[in-house]
Amino acid sequence: MGRHGLAMTFDRGCLLDIRDRASDMRWWSSEPDGFAVVDFEGKLVQIRYVVCNVCDGRGYYVNPSIDSNGIDPEEFDRDPGFREDYFSGMFDVRCELCWGSRVIPVPLYPDDLKRLSEWQEAGSDSRAIQEAEQRMGA
Ligand SMILES: [Zn+2]
After folding, report:
1. Is 90 exceeded by the pLDDT of residue 48?
2. 92 alpha carbon to ligand 1 midpoint, in Å?
3. Alpha carbons 112 and 91: distance in angstroms, whole number
4. How many A from CA of 110 to the centre of ligand 1?
5. Is residue 119 in some structural domain?
6. How far is ligand 1, taken at its centre, from the CA of residue 126, in Å?
């Protein structure tokens, strides 16, 4: 896979990872005024809003299946139409984390925050194992 350090936009390995996991990171099911319902336990937690870190507050991003491995600048050179489509937003999809609202709720209290991040870590661990198994051909 050739990566020639094109524009920064294409060199965001960790963000691309986040994109793939965005729907798993959605821990809340609804947001009644100033609160959010924690999806996996049905509890209400008090929240504040921050800019969505998956889409950088845009509400959408380029479909990960298009550029999750990075795009080789040569691909653009070979196919100017593709380049045009890419930059015109043709491959944009709604952000799976904020669902286009550009902000995400964050628990106000450290206890809630801690519980959630533990839940997310547990989730990504089991997914990492799954992916490793798939690579091994399990
Ligand atoms: Zn978002």
Report:
1. yes
2. 12
3. 36
4. 23
5. no
6. 24
